[in-house]
Amino acid sequence: MNINYQCPHCNGYLNVNDYILFSVRTADHKVGLISLHNELGNYAVQKHPEFEYKEGEQLDFYCPICHSELASEVHKKLAKIIMIDEENSEFEILFSRVAGEKSTYKIVGETMKIFGDDSAEYLDFLNLSMNF
Ligand SMILES: [Zn+2]
């Protein structure tokens, strides 16, 4: 069984081959599709060359199936999707909505794995929010 990524709202599968698909809106309201690599910590992005945004720009992420916003309630600069691993375990995946920022968090219960050079950015905030 492969690793799957799902929308937390409609449970639709977001991954196709090695990429996870998103509908995205830029700060100046341009819309487009992007795909992010399914390997956590790999920040390869695929998109149409005409769909442009700047490094550091905050993007809104939407499910391409049900169009719900994939926002995290933990921090407004993080997006959230669900990951189901090979053993059918479910994780919350949080990642930065800021273009070019490499911060990804894989969370189950009180356990968190972190990925990316910029992951320290939200770490204190996440640690605090996990201790309800
Ligand atoms: Zn959805």
Q: What are the SSEs and their pairings?
A:
Elements (H helix, E strand, L loop, with lengths): L3 E3 L8 E2 L2 E7 L5 E7 L7 E3 L12 E3 L15 E7 L5 E7 L7 E5 L2 E5 L7 H8 L2
Antiparallel strand pairs: 1-7, 2-3, 3-4, 3-6, 4-5, 7-8, 8-9, 9-10
The site of zinc ion has 8 residues, from loops.
Task: Tell me what you see in this structure.
The chain has 132 residues and is mostly beta strands. It has one domain (4-130). It contains one helix and ten strands. It has one helix spanning 123-130, and strands spanning 4-6, 15-16, 19-25, 31-37, 45-47, 60-62, 78-84, 90-96, 104-108, 111-115. The strands form two sheets. The chain has a five-stranded antiparallel sheet, with no helix packed on it. Strands 2, 3, 4, 5 and 6 form a five-stranded antiparallel sheet that branches. It is globular, with a radius of gyration of 14 Å. The model has no long low-confidence stretch (mean pLDDT 94). Zinc ion binds at residues 7, 9-10, 12, 63, 65-66, 68.
